[in-house]
Amino acid sequence: MLLPFLNKDLLEAGCDEAGRGCLAGAVYAAAVVLPPDFEHETLTDSKQLTPHQRYALREVIEREAIDWAIGRVDPQEIDEINILNASFLAMHRALDQLKIRPQFLLIDGNRFRPYRNLPYRTIVKGDGKYLSIAAASILAKTYRDDYMTELDAAYSQYGWKQNKGYPTRQHRLAIRKYGSTPFHRLTYNLLGDERQLDIPFE
Fold it and tell me: Which residues contact 75 (CB under 8 A, 6 or more apart)?
């Protein structure tokens, strides 16, 4: 059972990101402020849920949250500032869009760049411990999945509708065959270990 809050007397926002390990596409983040009495028996880390469950929970979160917002950092920015800084920036951009200013931040992970002097706590695997972080993980994941599915319409050869830009063998073989796109992160090792692709160069 996930915990509803860390500080029961403060208005908390949970933050999480999606897409750090991808070879292509933006990194997304979400910030979610849930009511102190919010409960949901199936809400948990987005990675533990099916796509159907994630999208069903997104409707619940958007309907019942006190406030929520999405931030993103595009591939060119990721290449300029690196993915760690881009993840922090995406969270900051999500927080910028909240209509209600939280009093405390719950951050998934072990590192964060302070935001407007707000107190915060980083929590490793926090999306499996706190409801607000789990809710943020679901929003970040589903909005990023929607974005990659839209990109797939123009770049279907890379299989982004299925792999969402992650470094699958199919994705890397497509990069070898077709080259990179404006949505690939050029500072990443796009081809990985050539031996793992298991086919000769043409």
Answer: 24, 25, 26, 182, 183, 184, 185, 186
